[in-house]
DNA sequence: ATAAATTTGTGCGTATGTATC
DNA sequence: GGATACATACGCACAAATTTA
């Protein structure tokens, strides 16, 4: 292993990783002396200052200890593991959202038996609040973090906090959505496929004018939109801008209602609508019935997530299954593995294949 | 204060002490910017490197944090000034319940600005799990606890944990429900009144056979039942056992469906049904429509809580308002007061007066 | 026992990069 | 773009602790 001066990672950081790796892999054992500062200087062709920076950090993080006049030694594992707080941070966009409580439930199911507890952070659609919670989690020395990133379809202003987490060796798992540039561990649904399945189903039923309502700052939502476009292309149905509606408002402000009104003002209104989640689908449902139209007779409707809402509505909603609790459990398990392996570099990614759940909100046009 | 080059203590060590002292004495406050590195260089006539050495140590020890391009700041909490953990435990019956997420949201709104975070515990309708979480919260040294007690209508096997909390001086607030024998601080709804209002409304509409579905191990639910009986008595309507249905299953198992079937098998079925919450009301709604009956034409329906479900359902549900988020905020404020006053004996109790919200799920019989 | 060599600790000077305002 | 503040990195010197010749 060598140090690359061209790497975006600072040299001292690279050296830290090299030492940590050789400690993890047992190449250097507890209380064994490692190379002296001057040896490391010549081996890696870096200055004494840089060597000391790296080693100083590792001493603070409990990987090494120094003895003046003698050398630097590998610390035993205990000094590291005993620093655990047994707290796992969970930051979500809206804790009171209809889906996230189930995810939290799933996470708790997995981590509580292992002695961990959840510290909750609620970003509330606000990247600044998200930043505050991230800093807070770092200050609290959480053992790991599960986060549903806020406004994931836009460039995140909070990237630096994730770098901080990595520097500190705090593993994190993104859930439901992820920031690609970080190449993080994550658990997600194949949203493109989900959107495709929903649109394909409507196309197979003979619908030619299929509308979509999605949230433009939400990555899964935009992926569902991609899937929708993919299906239209496959079935050679024209893509029409006027049938595509998006919003950025939080769901609890009922963004669907005005969009539905717009959709039914156009000359050839849609015969089917795909909503990126069930909450919006039910808002659409209400707005559509207010216009005097009936579901599925006049308009077919497909949601996403298979939430409780989908079953509780008057006409059970055709929707796409979301693993919810299972996804929480998976993220919890993944994080526990990352914590226990204490390897910062490891990346795990898991993508659920969604399934269409056919109920009664769609009609065949044939 | 100055740095003495003759001192046996290293300069960086002296600077650390100076900064720590001014932090302890409150001369620099949390999140306040301290002098820049170059300022400290000139003030104390030491090199940049020495300043960075001192400040780097203090960052590692949790006294300071740095923001590139902005400055170095005094860290809050995480230390020395007190033994506070700035963690508030929240234990609920079901975190994924439709109401509790809003309550958590409300709690978070109040406590997060004060630097506290929520550690979540999910009892999942299980008193043993509740016990495990209570012990866990005690072990974690939470600064306070907010709890929705599980199976609150039954004698609690977990009383001893609340005594432990009191012994340890950890204040707690019960929410939505409470264990009377403890004479605890709590925030609740006047459930008897709520049940009374719901039943009174149906009675005023001319209904003579009013059924109730409630959860028998849940204190608020049984109080709503009491209010129902009170109203019947007041209006001199006979109380009929066959119209009263209760269950203990968690709501997500759809306990309402079989009960509705039973209700409509009896000779004179009810013309109105009061369900102790909206979730059950919507399950009832579905079961009723499955029987070929229409709401409100054939059966009137009243729920409780005014959840999102009440508005999203096909026929907007008449229900009783529950403060939800506001209640969470109130409980948070109350707990913060108890923490700050650090008086164990103080008891605060707050009872919201519920209001009936009339929508379209009830019909007048007159 | 002493001196020399090694190793870590403290400290200064300088330069360049990057983030923020 | 310029000023400011922190981040990384190189070089040098000397001190203190320890080991070894």
Structure description:
The structure is a homodimer of 366-residue chains. With 366 residues, chain A is an alpha/beta fold. Chain A folds into three domains: 11-76, Arc Repressor Mutant, subunit A (Orthogonal Bundle); 80-189 and 325-351, 3-Layer(aba) Sandwich (Rossmann fold); 191-322, 3-Layer(aba) Sandwich (Rossmann fold). In chain A, 40% of the residues lie in helices and 16% in strands. The first copy, chain A, has helices spanning 11-24, 37-44, 48-60, 77-81, 100-111, 127-139, 159-167, 191-204, 219-234, 256-263, 278-290, 308-312, 325-341; strands at residues 64-67, 71-74, 87-92, 117-122, 144-147, 172-175, 185-189, 210-215, 244-247, 272-275, 300-302, 319-320, 349-352, 356-357. In chain A, the strands form four sheets. A six-stranded parallel sheet of chain A has the order 4-3-5-6-7-13, sandwiched between helices. In chain A, strands 9-8-10-11 form a four-stranded parallel sheet, sandwiched between helices. In chain A, a hairpin with a 3-residue loop joins β1 (64-67) and β2 (71-74). In chain A, α2 (37-44) crosses α3 (48-60) and α6 runs parallel beside α7 (159-167). The mean pLDDT of chain A is 89. β4 of chain A pairs antiparallel with β4 of chain B. Chain A binds a DNA duplex (21 and 21 nucleotides) through residues 10-12, 36-38, 46-50, 52-53, 66-72, 160.
